[in-house]
Amino acid sequence: MPLGGVSAYVLLRGREAAVVDTGTSDSNAAIADGLGMLGTSWADVRHIVLTHRHRDHVGGLSDLLAEVSGATVYAGEADLDRVQSSAELTAVGDGDEVLGMGVINTPGHTSGSISLFDVETGILVAGDALNGDDGQLTGADPRYSSDLEVAQESVAKLAALEPTIAAFGHGGPPIDTDVSAQLAALAAS
Ligand SMILES: [Zn+2]
């Protein structure tokens, strides 16, 4: 769902849904639209994943929790204490799974940035570890990232997964063309 400059995602597996990122605030109508498009609703949302601590990704959390109080809220360990949440936060990182997707630590944009990757479908949700526009993937935005060298290592880590679809926080809809090749080129640049 485009939320005015930032995207949030709804992922569905069976009857279980996850919302990834929450926009700045009051994003519930757009997220409800996204759930509706997949034929699901608030009642099926079991997971809320915060890819990192920036306000444009976590600002809508309190509104969201008013609708889905039963969901587990996840964030990367290093970003955890910078996220305001009325719900308990669960730290996740390399080796953990949410909705059957692997959690990948992808620091650099923030120290606790995480991505989600589904081995079966090749879907990668990268938060702000990647950006994209017009089918073209780029790395973390130098203007807003805390450590570009580490961010570049995270791009290489994502390239090694060889994803087929890449979704990200800013710049447009997910990219599904030459994603692996683009990431490999980015990692080598
Ligand atoms: Zn960010």
Description of the molecule:
- By secondary structure, the protein is of the alpha/beta class.
- The protein has a single domain (9-188), classed as 4-Layer Sandwich (Metallo-beta-lactamase, Chain A).
- Helices cover 23% and strands 27% of the residues.
- The protein is built from 5 helices and 12 strands.
- The strands form 3 sheets. It has a 5-stranded mixed beta sheet, covered by helices on one side.
- Helix 4 runs antiparallel to helix 5 (179-188).
- The longest helix has 12 residues, at 148-159.
- It is globular.
- 44% of the residues are buried.
- The mean pLDDT is 96.
Compact summary:
The protein is an alpha/beta fold and 189 residues long.
Write the layout of secondary structure elements.
Layout: E1 9-13, E2 16-20, H1 28-37, E3 45-50, H2 55-58, H3 61-67, E4 72-76, E5 89-92, E6 97-98, E7 101-105, E8 114-118, E9 123-125, E10 130-133, E11 136-139, H4 148-159, E12 165-167, H5 179-188
Parallel strand pairs: 2-3, 3-4, 4-5, 9-12
Antiparallel strand pairs: 1-2, 6-7, 7-8, 8-9, 10-11
The protein binds zinc ion.
Please work out how many helical segments DSSP would assign. Answer: 5
Unreliable stretches (pLDDT < 50, length at least 5) are none
Radius of gyration: 15 Å
What molecules are bound to this protein?
zinc ion
Note the run of SSEs as H and E: EEHEHHEEEEEEEEHEH
Within the largest sheet, what's the order of strands? 1-2-3-4-5
What number of structural domains do the residues give?
Answer: 1
CATH topology: Metallo-beta-lactamase, Chain A
Proportion of beta-strand residues? 25-35%
**CATH structural architecture:** 4-Layer Sandwich
Tell the overall outline.
globular
DSSP E strands, number: 12
User: How much helicity do the residues have?
Assistant: 10-25%
Mean pLDDT: 96
CATH class label: Alpha Beta
Structural class: alpha/beta
Largest sheet: 5 strands, mixed
End-to-end distance: 30 Å
- Name the CATH superfamily assignment: Ribonuclease Z/Hydroxyacylglutathione hydrolase-like
